[in-house]
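Anyone able to model this chain together with magnesium ion?
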Amino acid sequence: MPGKKTRVLVLFGGRSGEHEISILSAASIIAAIDSERFAAIPLAINRDGRWLDPPSSAALLPPETVKSCSLEAVDISHQPGLSRGFDIAFPALHGPYGEDGKVQGLLEMGDVPYVGSGVLGSACGMDKDVMKRLFRESGLPTLPHVAVWRGQVRERRAEIERRIGFPAFVKPANLGSSVGIRKVKDSAGLLSALEYAGEFDRKIIVEPGVDAREIECSILGNEEPEASLPGEIVTPCGFYDYETKYLTDSAELVAPAELTPDQTDSIQRLAVLAFQAIGCAGLARVDFFIERATERVLLNEVNTMPGFTSISMFPRMWAASGISYPNLIERLIELGLARHFHARSVRHDYE
Ligand SMILES: Nc1ncnc2c1ncn2[C@@H]1O[C@H](COP(=O)(O)OP(=O)(O)O)[C@@H](O)[C@H]1O
Ligand SMILES: [Mg+2]
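re: yes, here you go
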């Protein structure tokens, strides 16, 4: 007798600037999931944060994608045991309210298994200030930075300039997709970039700009994470900004990247250590700089729910390493179920 299918609730959309890319990620996952083993159920969160039902969620996806979906009613509750209609959630959500631990917290309260990092890893991966401090605490190479609250930008401007110099990159601490980021060359530019980043987050980080290759590495696993072959992002102007990422599509994604065996080893080793330093689970894409002048390898950031369409960098690096896109989805679901199983074995009593 064939076993029952595992019902996978694919969460997508969300209250984030990365709403659209999340729809693409979910559509790819649903289209590629092995329908012999899994039943995908689409569930969208709209831009205002409202959760839709499966039929209205399916209406946001390409019709051919949802043909194989289950659209039966589901309940998602913060009360343990009261969520119904699915076996595991797959938050294909990017950015705030999806990748930053908030959805993960809701799912934890309801004792629901889910794919990817937990509350702590998700939150640390979203906050560039905390993430970089954890890298440093673990002895991992990353650029120096200053964090500043947006109310303090005028009073701390001279100090930031002295500590970081120019060119500098000014970024909202908690965001993605290069939104709110500016490269600045002088004092006047610094103040307006700080004020601009402050429109997107209360906390801002400033770090030195480097002339560097942008190398990425995918991680898969829980306690014993494995690293893919690294890939490279080649941008026309050396800044992988929002426009290059989504509007002009002018970046070239190369996988595997052209690196020496030593460089590949060191990227893979550092990617695993970065994943562990911020407490990730399931998957992550770890992004690096290799400074052109010195060949120094520096950690830029960890993305706990990287772009997940079949042509995104995360699956492409795994494809180059011998793991297909459908297989990746299967592994992630298994890792999410395993993590939930092990979390349940922890004692909550003490007598
Ligand atoms: N310190 C830096 N030096 C040079 N380029 C940078 C620096 N920081 C960011 N960038 C450029 O900006 C892009 C986006 O910055 P990143 O920190 O990765 O933010 P996001 O989370 O939005 O992707 C990078 O991919 C890179 O092209
Ligand atoms: Mg980035």
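The mean pLDDT is 94.
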